Amino acid sequence: MDNLEKIVSLAKRRGFIYPSSDIYGGLAGAWDYGPLGVLLKNNIKSLWWKKFVLDRDDMYGIDSAILMNTKVWEASGHIKEFSDKLVECKKCHKRFRAEQLKEEFCCHVCGGEITEPRKFNTMFKTLIGSAEDSASQIYLRPETAQGMFVNFKNIIDSFHPKIPFGIAQIGKAFRNEITPCDFIFRIREFEQMEIEYFIKQPNGVLAWEKSFEYWLNQMHDWMKEIGISGKNIFDREVEEKDRAHYSKRTIDIDYNYPFGRGELYGIAYRADFDLKNHGLDYYDEETKETFTPHVIEPTFGIDRTILALLCEAYSEDEMGGEKRIVLKFNPKIAPVKAAVFPLLKNKPELVEKAKEVYAMVKKDSPAGEAGIQPAMFDDNGNIGKRYRRQDEIGTPFCVTVDFETLDNDTVTVRSRDTGEQERVKIDELTKFLHNAIS
Ligand code: GAP
């Protein structure tokens, strides 16, 4: 089994990610997040929101509708340009993205001859309203970005922001990918965290380049903060012929996935393409000037973040003479922060005390950067087995209530990464965990 297969299997077995519609054989390009997957995803979203929206004074967070007026997609150029090059095998009729067959000129499946590439628009169409005619056809958004552009004027009218400022949002996007593949890497329904940062770009001044560099650095800081290591990340300048129709410059941040290097995030200089096409501009009350701002767009795929984090965290090692699988998540993003056990299941006094400690840990400040919720209680099997189970889901700390606890109100706290145990007073436990997590 290669590492990707092991990760897919662990993700399903332990409740992170399940194939969508599994009992009916699944649906290509769609996955469901289970209880631990949701916790992981929510931790990523709330850390991102805190860093890029709450901690800044120049960012406005929104949550726009997925369904939008078709005129948005006409103006944004998506109806005309948002396509992949598709080729088809003349023999078995399997379809591929042309770039998949780069150097080869025959079908991967049967060796048959393939057609010339043709454009395939990857936007999903759907019908709105009860009349099934073409007038009611709309699209599922293929990027969250347009929700920010069409709310540009609303934000100005409500908040009168001084330029530069940004609009950010987190939400679902849909693309009818020709070949969904590699677990949650290329899927048809995914989530993005995006920023549209509006700047003044006078002629002949390099304002956009400075801002582009600043945001690229911010993206690298973010990856470091959540535990995606520099050694697996590569900035790749995207050639003009491969750039999206709206971009004057793009850098893709690639990650070393088990199946090879692929895009994790991207940053684009969209210039004034979108605001101009939507007929939107900005009036500067100080200079009395009206102009069309330019846009720097840092974009982050959540599903690819999760895949990269699973790849970073997955390891197999030995602890206490036993083999184990461990997810070495940064404690800040780990779905479960602490597990609490009684040393023995059949000693009611230990179970009762452990439940008290568990309730205390669980009640602690709500999830957030340093929050230690959620916690888990486990009294199944021996302590070694319970440690293995928590290691496998990346729980950074296991708290055990033993006989000494009953004498002196202390517990042992075992660290996932070192296996070391420390005795901590129950009174100081939540503070100890907070410090260790943050
Ligand atoms: N608004 C700009 C935009 O959408 P993009 O590079 O097409 O740019 C942004 O997409 C991010 O969304 C990518 O860097 C990636 O993380 C994620 N993404 C794009 N297509 C995806 C897919 N089919 N499956 C999973 N994630 C995807």
Commentary on this structure:
By secondary structure, this protein is of the alpha+beta class. The chain has 2 domains: 3-65 and 137-311, BirA Bifunctional Protein, domain 2, CATH 3.30.930; 336-437, Rossmann fold (3-Layer(aba) Sandwich), CATH 3.40.50. Helix content is 31%, strand content 29%. The protein is built from 13 helices and 23 strands. Strands 3-9-10-16-13-12-11 form a 7-stranded mixed β-sheet. It has a 5-stranded mixed β-sheet with strand order 20-19-21-22-23, with helices on both faces. The radius of gyration is 25 Å and the shape is globular. It binds glycyl-adenosine-5'-phosphate. Residues 143, 145, 175, 177, 186-187, 190, 192, 194, 263-266, 297, 299, 301, 303-304 line the site of glycyl-adenosine-5'-phosphate.
Counting DSSP E segments of at least 2 residues, the number of strands comes to 23
Distance between the termini: 35 Å
Low-confidence stretches: none
Counting structural domains, the number is 2
What is the third-level CATH name, the topology of the largest domain? BirA Bifunctional Protein, domain 2
> What CATH architecture of the largest domain do you see?
2-Layer Sandwich
Q: Which structural class do the helices and strands define?
A: alpha+beta
By CATH's scheme, which homologous superfamily of the largest domain applies?
Bira Bifunctional Protein, Domain 2
Strand line-up in the sheet with most strands: 3-9-10-16-13-12-11
Number of helices: 13
